[in-house]
UniProtKB/TrEMBL annotation:
Transmembrane segments: none annotated. Gene3D superfamilies: 3.20.20.210. PANTHER family: 5-METHYLTETRAHYDROPTEROYLTRIGLUTAMATE--HOMOCYSTEINE METHYLTRANSFERASE (PTHR30519). 5-methyltetrahydropteroyltri-L-glutamate binds at residues 18-21, 117, 519-520, 565, 609. It comes from the Bacteria. One of its GO terms (molecular function) is methyltransferase activity. Residues 430-752 form the Cobalamin-independent methionine synthase MetE C-terminal/archaeal domain. SUPFAM superfamilies: UROD/MetE-like. The gene is metE. It comes from Shewanella colwelliana (Alteromonas colwelliana). It catalyses: 5-methyltetrahydropteroyltri-L-glutamate + L-homocysteine = tetrahydropteroyltri-L-glutamate + L-methionine. This is 5-methyltetrahydropteroyltriglutamate--homocysteine methyltransferase.
Length: 758
């Protein structure tokens, strides 16, 4: 019998009921001791190791647990702590929290380090700050203590660390410009020291993650791989080089030549890599096959996976590991917690814990395919597929199939529409508007909680929200804003709100995934064909518009954003799902127009986030994402004005696609970059209207009239003033009215003074 091993690249750390989050936050508030936080953390680690061991994972990951972020733990381990967070004492837990959050129960406050998304995931890591004089030495013991802890429980472990080349790639040079790669030799030396410590603890394998291999790399970075791994190969523990999130086939000659004992491939993101790397596997190398999707919640098609792997398992027998595609960090923890899911949906799902069971089942399919249990597993796979195909909504599928090119285009080109819209709305030069949400006050959130708990009736809830909406409209009228919004008081979240009203979406109770630190998100599930049950926003838009003669924007979330911020089904393509959502949004857009709403905004803040890791794959994504947006918007007359909004964006390389979306007005986040982001629009001679944000809503500071005038003057030096709008960077839901009112008052004053001077 062949001996395939089950491997794990990491397990979610938050706990099935977010125990870690609650303990962290209590510790930060000073409500529990450090020891109490350590105790919660330890019991989580023990639980997670136990689940993995029970599933048959032989080498348990250590280093996947973190009190904030695993990249930050590594920075602390190697002593890469910014001076401002260091304090006089040695590196400890509070040092980590000061780096991550700017403050901790002990030590001086100092601005937090930067945080950014980990590759194309929604997980955020703390960006290491490195200076030319950076030295490295082991400065923090957490990793070694956790190895000790697991070993004491009788487990064999495989520590997991971000590899040295990816670490430098993700780091940011501090102060003067310098090449982080100049630190490579020193960094590799501290990795050697770490590996030696692990060896002394009896560790046989260490996993080094090098996710940058999925990117196209400049020659100096590929050389860095050669030199770093040459040196590290002399260390005692065997090295498993792990890649994930994409294909590394473009680096195959480099990777196959690296002196490592094992290689992990993400075969969910890029199954085509397998034959390429298998053919080059050297005699004593292990191949870890990432075949269970670590980034989604759907049960795996184990029968198909087993078929695809049977040849390679035969060829390499005991050198094959089967594993999730990447760390399970991006998955919710335990499906067993879900008590309210429809059984038919639940049967289609696997969270992190269930994915471990899938690995055990896959091993069985590979090693004893003729057993009774194997037949049962295959039977379940077939049942699942049948259930899915029966749940299809033929009408939706037909509507998608019968779309034609005109469905994606407005009736006339922008210049013509612009004239019609000017005629209709008669807006002043530099119209003022906001992005949609107004403060979600504790009163509003309390109201929603009482409604969810059925302590107030639907009618009471609606009546109170209407009062909030009315107040929001009155405040905007008093401020003198030109194009109003209703304020989104009724929305908990810009995706969940729509998901709850669309067919084909499901919601979990505990399907949380860590986003950063103690922050978790609970993405909806898109399990079926998506369609609109009925109007979703119409009542609010109509009510708000009934209160004023000024235009009130209808406010919708776009198809690309709804898709990216959900766990989408895998049996049809993402572009088909986006098209289905686009049709549902399109129907809402048309309903809004028919109800007299003349300006409609379709938000796409996650548009850029969906870009594939490799440039060569961008165009395909941009083509379907732009098409989905256009489809959602194009059902309206020329004199209906379509807005879109994007934040977290950098437009240099995508400006042609942004222009192709053909929104009449786009509002973007620009105040932090002091209008630098407008350069792309200037160079491209972007033809439609633009509202570059002049108010940084992420800061509690109130921007002055002068600051906003100067930003708008800068904008007007790049884009003809007739094309410009004046607005904040993003929605105002996280701010208070005490901040928002004076800020918007200044925004209107700034605009009026500009109108006079131009
Ligand atoms: N309309 C949304 C709001 O104002 C947009 C949010 C976003 O861009 N993330 O809250
Ligand atoms: Zn935004």
């Amino acid at each position: 019998m062949q001996s395939v091993k089950i491997a794990s690249l990491g397990f979610p750390r938050i706990g099935r009921k977010r125990e870690l989050k609650f303990a962290q936050e209590k510790y930060w508030r000073g409500e529990i001791s450090r020891q109490a936080l350590f105790d919660v953390a330890k019991s989580l680690r023990i639980q997670h190791w136990q689940w993995q061991a029970e599933a048959g994972v032989e080498l348990l990951p250590v280093g996947d647990f973190a009190y904030y972020d695993q990249v930050l733990t590594l920075s602390a381990t190697i002593g890469a702590i910014p001076d401002r967070h260091r304090g006089s004492e040695q590196v400890d837990l509070d040092t980590l929290f000061r780096v991550a959050r700017g403050r901790a129960p002990t030590g001086e406050e100092a601005p937090a380090a930067e945080m950014t998304k980990y590759f194309n995931t929604n997980y955020h890591y703390i960006v290491p700050e490195l200076s030319p004089a950076q030295t490295f030495s082991i400065a923090y013991e957490q990793l070694f203590e956790e190895v000790e802890e697991a070993v004491a429980l009788g487990y064999k472990v495989k520590p997991v660390l971000l590899g040295p080349v990816s670490y430098l790639y993700l780091a940011k040079a501090q102060g003067e410009e310098f090449d982080c790669l100049s630190l490579l030799d020193n960094l590799v030396a501290v990795y050697q020291a770490i590996l030696a410590r692990f060896a002394a603890q009896g560790v046989e394998w260490v996993q080094l993650d090098e996710p940058i291999l999925a990117l196209a790399l400049e020659p100096q970075w590929t050389q860095a791989f050669e030199s770093a791994y040459q040196t590290l190969s002399h260390s005692k523990p065997k090295l498993l080089l792990a890649s994930y999130y994409g294909s590394i086939a473009h680096h195959q000659p480099l990777v196959s030549a690296l002196p490592v004992a094992g290689l992990h491939l993400d075969l969910v993101a890029a199954p085509e890599q397998l034959p390429l790397f298998a053919a080059q596997l050297s005699q004593d190398q292990v191949l870890s096959l990432g075949v269970i999707n670590g980034r989604n919640v759907w049960a795996a098609q184990l029968d198909d996976i087993a078929d695809n792997l049977s040849a390679v398992v035969k060829d390499f027998a005991d050198r094959i590991w089967i594993a999730p595609s990447c760390s399970l960090l991006h998955c919710p923890v335990d499906l067993d917690c879900e008590q309210q899911l429809a059984p038919s949906l639940r049967d289609q799902l696997a969270f992190a814990k269930q994915k471990l069971t899938e690995l055990a089942q896959l091993k069985l399919l590979l090693t004893s395919p003729d057993s009774e249990s194997a037949k049962q597993i295959i039977g379940t796979c077939i049942e699942r597929r049948n259930a899915r195909s029966q749940a299809a909504n033929k009408q939706v599928q037909q509507r998608v199939a019968s779309l034609c090119p005109q469905d994606y285009e407005r009736q006339h080109a922008f210049a013509y529409r612009q004239a019609a819209q000017q005629q209709r709305f008669k807006l002043p030069l530099l119209p003022t508007t906001t992005i949609g949400s107004f403060p979600q006050t504790p009163a509003i959130r309390g109201l929603r909680n009482r409604w969810r708990l059925a302590e107030i009736t639907q009618a009471q809830y609606t009546a109170q929200l209407k009062a909030v909406t009315q107040d929001t409209i009155e405040r905007q009228l008093k401020l003198g804003i030109d194009v109003l919004v209703h304020g989104e008081a009724e929305r908990n979240d810009m995706v969940e709100y729509f998901g709850e009203q669309l067919q084909g979406f499901g919601f979990t109770q505990f399907g949380w995934v860590q986003s950063y630190g103690s922050r978790c998100v609970k993405p909806p599930l898109i399990y079926g064909d998506v369609s609109r049950k009925g109007p979703m926003t119409l009542e609010w838009a109509e009510y708000a518009q009934s209160l004023t003669d000024k235009p009130v924007k209808g406010m919708l979330t776009g198809p690309v954003t709804i898709l990216h911020w959900s766990f989408a089904r895998e049996d049809i393509s993402r572009d088909t799902i986006a098209t289905q959502i686009a049709l549902a949004i399109r129907d809402e857009v048309v309903d809004l127009q028919e109800a007299g709403i003349g300006i409609i905004q379709i938000d796409e803040p996650a548009f850029r986030e969906g870009l594939p890791l490799k440039r060569s794959d961008w165009q395909h994504y941009l083509d379907w994402a732009v098409a989905a947006f256009k489809l959602s918007a194009a059902g309206v007359r020329d004199d209906t004005q379509i807005h879109t909004h994007m934040c977290y964006s950098e437009f240099n390389e995508t400006i042609a696609a942004i222009a192709a979306m053909d929104a009449d007005v786009i509002t973007i986040e620009t105040s932090r970059s002091r209008m630098e982001l407008l350069n792309a629009f200037e160079d491209f001679e972007y033809p439609n209207e633009i509202g570059p944000g002049v108010y940084d809503i992420h800061s509690p500071n109130i921007p002055s009239v002068e600051q906003m005038v100067s930003l708008m003057e800068k904008a007007a030096s790049k884009v003809p003033v007739q094309q410009l709008w004046v607005n904040p960077d993003c929605g105002l839901k996280t701010r208070t009215w005490e901040e928002v009112e004076p800020a918007l008052k200044n925004l209107v004053t700034a605009t009026k003074s500009l109108r006079r001077s131009l």
